[in-house]
Design brief:
Chain lengths: 414, 385
């Protein structure tokens, strides 16, 4: 029976290629956009290289300082010492890392100018991230303590500074008027991951790193890797408690009398929302995104409904003949359900194939170096479900209404 | 005849309602995208107000250093000026052209307070960026030590604060009880790139420790000089941080922050429209197939073929008008409630373009099936009955 229905659906599709095209185009194009868009969101906020463990990672992106009347506010990354003091006292975590945000610098090879992003980090930075080591090693505590000028670079720097395929360990690289010895090379992080993005990582005690600053503000952010996401609440509470420890309010900081200090350890998405909207609620973000997507789907959905309702007339004679030969309404209903599921799935399949093609073109285009976008199957599932709902509503309801008619009337109408 | 169309459409309101909703949603999407385009175009069409081609931007950070910053910065600046490759160099605060940094302050004159972009610079700024002075003059060295800090404003700041009055020589007041005297007016200054909306701008002569230097180099100067420059000033202050970028590159990436999202929006919107157009085309073809007998009857009673075409196109246009009207009622709320603080003209252009697009689209989609309808032979159509 099933194969019979699918056969009929296939014949209906072939009978009028133009309508088939419109229907499939509507379904697959809408799903395609949804897939590409969600792949971008997933890339931004999901757990991907080199932050594969983001789901059990907390970030401390900024410190907020306010005066007693809360009229002036200072907000930004923190100093190395502030983070070190609080993070080293934190118990019950797997690891913590402190790193500066990236900073632009230029290196010169002959008359060629190479733009590079520099980051200063402690050895914990390598433990809270999962960089893939391609050559040499990552610097550890004792390397840092020796106080030599060493650097970890990415392939991108190697390709531009030394040339592709060259071995780099032990070689010097010169920028900012200083020479650094390369100890290791890693696969780089995409620019869309601001906390790990850099072309060159230097130990925090390298020159110009500002690590000795005694103020609260600075250039550093903190990353905490928990044993599991279940530990988040207790870690967050303890960290907040630690930041308030031993502070005597009000204190002076860059000419401001600070009466409130706030530094929070937050999961990535919460932190992102907090930085932009000063709110910790992720619900708003998801509401906005899903409302936008629903609105976006409304137009193709109405289009599909319109077309399906108009097209049911083509099938009226078929329905009435089946009824006249004794088919109950239920059987006819099932036929149309299966037919619609079949057409929608076909559209979804096309969307999936095109999404894979577009994303792989994007990944290899180098528009965002190191960005690897992939189809999110949860979103694909939701999109498919919505497409099915609309397809069933628009295709099955009119068919069902028609199947309720008396065969004689239906045949007369046809 | 139009009344007749309305009667026909009202009689089939249930199936037409969906078409109206579809056109309404399409109109709203178009209105949004077209308004965005109009807004971007309006901003883009205003001149940038300065030249960036040969200009490099050097940002200086002095980290923990606190001793005699001013003196050290001055000697670095002197050094930069001394190179023969450098045509002119100007010191400015960190909100250099096309940088993401901004500096906003409230500025007051009489009872009018507006917020403006503040650019604290030296006297060479206008020359380094090729800013043209519309009225008055740019401040000079001789203005140093004057009772009031000399300032230059742009046209929109003048309009907002002084209306039709001549602002030259007037004293404006800033937060913290600073007083500036206006000595000149420039047309435009779009620090945030070509797509920046027209905003009030205030330049003032500053002696503060300015962290950036705009370096205008002579034509033909390349990275060899850049490397030399960076090495030598780097050696002057080994613990400081120096970042050099080209305004040309910065402009491109600044503009992309607006142009790339707009491009994506319009591509998606284009596919939407294609989708809607195909859908309308399909629905109309089916509707006409359903009304073959009606067409046959009209033809048999002597209606000429063009009348049939006009009839179906007209019906579609009436449906489109109903959708667009509801859309316009919603769209007009944006300028009325001043939702995004944009000029009303942006929305008007958006509405106009969206309406036009909808009508063109609907007419094109309706034309072919309607011409097909007109070809129906009355005899065959009536025979089918």
């Amino acid at each position: 029976m099933l194969s019979n229905y699918i056969k009929i659906a296939w014949k209906v599709l072939l009978r009028n290629p133009f309508y088939t095209f419109i229907t499939l185009f509507g379904i697959s194009f809408t799903l395609l956009i949804l897939l590409v868009l969600s792949a971008f969101l997933d890339h931004m906020f999901g757990s991907h290289y080199p932050e594969q463990q983001r789901f059990r990672t907390l970030y401390i992106p900024s410190i907020t300082l306010r005066d007693s009347s809360r009229t002036s506010t200072m907000k930004g990354p923190m100093s190395y010492k502030f983070l070190k003091k609080n993070l080293s006292a934190l118990g019950g975590i797997e690891a913590y890392g402190i790193s500066s945000l990236f900073r632009t610098t230029n290196a010169y090879v002959g008359s060629k100018r190479i733009k590079m992003m520099v980051k200063y980090a402690d050895s914990g930075f390598w433990r809270v991230t999962d960089f893939e080591l391609l050559e040499g090693k990552l610097f550890n505590e004792s390397d840092i303590d020796r106080g030599q000028h060493i650097a970890v670079i990415t392939e991108k720097v190697r390709d531009e500074y030394f040339g592709p395929g060259e071995s780099v360990v032990g070689k010097p690289i010169e920028f900012n008027g200083l020479k650094y010895r390369i100890v290791g090379m890693v696969k780089g992080s995409p620019v869309t991951h601001p906390y790990t993005y850099a072309d060159i990582v230097l130990p925090y005690n390298s020159p110009k790193s500002e690590y000795e600053s005694d103020s609260k503000n600075g250039a550093y952010i903190g990353i905490i890797r928990a044993r599991s996401a279940r530990d988040f609440p207790s870690i967050q509470r303890e960290f907040e408690h630690l930041t308030q420890r031993g502070l005597k309010f009000p204190f002076e900081e860059s000419g401001m009398k600070v009466a409130h200090l706030e530094a929070k350890a937050l999961p990535f998405l919460t932190g992102f929302i907090y930085e932009f909207f000063q709110s910790e609620s992720t619900e708003i973000f998801f509401t906005v995104v899903s409302l936008f997507m629903l609105l976006f789907m409304a137009l193709p959905a109405i289009n599909l409904i319109n077309l399906n309702i108009s097209r049911i007339i083509e099938r009226s004679s078929e329905i009435s003949i089946r009824k006249a030969f004794g088919a109950p309404s239920k059987t006819i209903l099932w036929q149309f359900v299966i037919e619609n599921v079949f057409v929608t799935s076909l559209g979804a399949l096309i969307a999936l194939v095109f999404a894979q093609i577009i994303l792989s073109i994007f990944n290899s285009s180098g528009l965002i170096p190191y960005a690897v976008l992939s189809v999110n199957y949860t979103v694909f599932g939701i999109g498919l479900l919505l497409a099915l709902v609309f397809g069933l509503m628009s295709g099955v309801v009119p068919a069902w209404r028609m199947s309720k008619l008396k065969p004689a009337e239906a045949l007369k109408g046809a | 005849m139009i009344r007749h169309f309305f009667k026909l459409i009202w009689n089939k309101k249930r199936s037409n309602a969906l078409l109206i909703v579809e056109i309404l949603v399409a109109f709203l999407v178009l209105f949004g995208v077209m308004s965005l385009m109009a807004y971007n175009y309006q901003n883009y069409s205003r001149p940038l107000g300065f030249k960036y081609e040969q200009v490099w931007c050097l940002n200086i950070g002095w980290n923990q250093d606190t001793a005699q910053i001013g003196e050290k910065l001055k000697s670095i600046y002197q050094r930069i000026r001394s190179y023969p490759e450098v045509e002119i160099a100007s010191r400015t605060n960190g909100n250099t052209p096309f940088a993401n940094n901004q500096s906003n302050r409230n500025v007051k004159y009489n009872k009018v307070t507006i917020q403006g972009d503040i650019f604290s610079t030296d006297e060479q700024y206008a020359k380094a960026l090729g800013i043209e002075i519309a009225e008055g003059r740019w401040y000079t060295r001789a203005d140093k030590g004057a009772k009031h800090t000399p300032a230059v404003i742009n046209q929109i700041a003048k309009e907002k604060m002084f209306g039709k009055d001549n602002p030259l020589g007037k004293i404006i007041q800033l937060e913290g009880d600073e007083r500036w005297k206006i000595v000149g007016i420039v047309e435009n200054f779009k620090q945030r790139g070509d797509y920046q909306p027209n905003a009030p701008v205030f330049f003032n002569l500053s002696d503060w420790d300015m962290s950036s230097v705009l370096v205008k180099v002579k034509p033909g100067v390349d990275a060899n000089f850049e490397a030399k420059l960076m090495r030598e000033i780097g050696n002057m202050q080994p613990d400081w941080v120096f970042e050099l970028s080209y305004l040309k590159t910065l402009r491109k990436s600044m503009n992309q922050q607006t142009s790339i999202p707009s491009l994506i929006f319009s591509i998606v919107c284009g596919f939407f429209l294609l989708n809607v157009a195909l859908g309308l085309f399909g629905v109309l073809t089916l509707n006409i197939a359903k009304r073959r007998s009606e067409i046959g009857l009209r033809r048999a009673l002597g209606a000429p073929a063009p009348a049939i075409t006009i009839h179906f196109v007209g019906e579609m246009l009436v449906i489109a008008t109903l959708g667009v009207l509801i859309g316009l009622i919603l769209a007009v709320q944006f300028p009325l409630l001043n939702v995004f603080d944009l000029e009303a003209s942006v929305y008007l252009v958006g509405m106009l373009l969206a309406t036009l697009t909808i009508y063109v689209l609907v007419t094109l989609c309706a034309l072919y099936p309607s011409i097909q309808a007109a070809r129906i032979q009355p005899a065959t159509a009536l025979h089918e009955e």
